[in-house]
């Protein structure tokens, strides 16, 4: 840690810690677990974003497995090159929507590598069963295509049938190589592919889209905690999303499902409480014909509106959620207006990395006169205004996916069900203490993440058993104790 702390630049710290992962895996995880709050912003957002942007020029060792379009027809053979014969979880990207940074092609590998490091450090899934994969179908990023250090295929992205067939070959090969229960986590695909792949493969594989589903559970968890803090109920809220893509509509769907569970309303009625804003403005009925399928059920009767501030004024949301990938869009005007009719507005600026955050923690607290319940997608430091300190939370799917993945693995789940996401969200919210709520926190502390992950894992496995989707029988009597007992710890035995 002294070596890592001696670097002043975060990217240098990233290079140092990833070098350690290569040289001494156990020590890498020990360092990560013992210093989780300090190291998370390095191996994960925001630094991993910069690392992906510069991946070619900082490249020292290959991490993970690259599968390129040139290996069409031989994907199974490529998988067999991976030295570990037993794999339980794959995190895969095609690099087209890396955080809010866009198409980084093959350099997106930093994301599956980082996510799987968190599976082990935060969720206790043994690193040997984790396989990071980048599917290289080219990139449309001209800067990378012209960069002499670019590590991927120098061609435009394959699309249409060529792309679909290649992904299909991959999905079939992973089952052949690792069996029916292999968990495949899709990460940072562009939304035109993400929704389609999830829809297609959730019928035949154990798949999980972290950006759509993991994010939905983590945000719902934060909202449940905020409602507890404000002593309000979910059906009385009005939600406004700025950004109606994977994260935005994924969260909105799960919120609507939770409303139907808590109040006597249909799924459609629940959605009437939820408004969405995309790059063309408020999503309204008049735009129905031209809307992508994932947005359609959120198109409500309203006149067209092209400014976020106008939407805030007319809809009077109680919860404002940013999933646009565009920084500095929750302006002073927006936050002041939101705070004019809410005692404690909930503001979630979830876009990553920090430069893409819709507002900073300081802006949220300053412009709401300290009344906002705020969470960012990337970490923000506590803010002191007029002698009072405010503690921002981090609304990031890192709270959820390691626990969900662990839960699916320990019960031998064959499919993921939305009720498991609800169970994960509730388990997360239950971990926020009254003391933390009193400080304005809507997420528990990352320093307790392994305890939190065990709780989420047990809740997900419990739901899998209830739904008949778990194959590991008999069901353990005490799932929480079982989940904890299955967590890998990088222990050092004492010398004699
Ligand atoms: N905190 C967390 O755990 C997570 C955070 N994220 C972050 O969320 C962001 C978005 O990710 P994702 O949902 O997957 O991306 P998508 O590309 O699927 O969605 C982006 C959405 O934002 C809209 N948008 C883009 N520009 C604007 C604008 N200027 N004004 C209003 N809306 C705009 C897009 O509109 P249109 O549909 O018209 O193109 C689209 O609806 C990223 O920064 C990502 O890092 C994602 C997952 C998890
Ligand atoms: C956190 C995450 O998954 C994202 O920003 O894409
Ligand atoms: Mg992601």
UniProtKB/TrEMBL annotation:
CC terms in the record's Gene Ontology section: chloroplast
Note accompanying the cofactor annotation: Divalent metal cations. Prefers magnesium or manganese.
One BP annotation, GO: malate metabolic process
Active-site residue numbers: 44 (proton donor), 115 (proton acceptor)
UniProt entry keywords in alphabetical sequence: Metal-binding, Oxidoreductase
Listed PROSITE patterns: MALIC_ENZYMES (PS00331)
Domain Malic enzyme N-terminal residues, every copy: 21-202
Keyword Membrane found: no
Binding site for a divalent metal cation: 187-188, 211
Tagged with keyword Oxidoreductase: yes
Residues that bind (S)-malate: 97, 352, 396
Malic enzyme NAD-binding domain ranges (all copies): 212-465
Listed GO MF terms: malate dehydrogenase (decarboxylating) (NADP+) activity; metal ion binding; NAD binding
A Pfam family matched in the record: malic
Cofactor(s) this protein cannot do without: Mg(2+); Mn(2+)
Family: Belongs to the malic enzymes family.
Protein name: Malic enzyme
Organism from which the protein derives: Ceratopteris richardii (Triangle waterfern)
Lineage of origin: Eukaryota, Viridiplantae, Streptophyta, Embryophyta, Tracheophyta
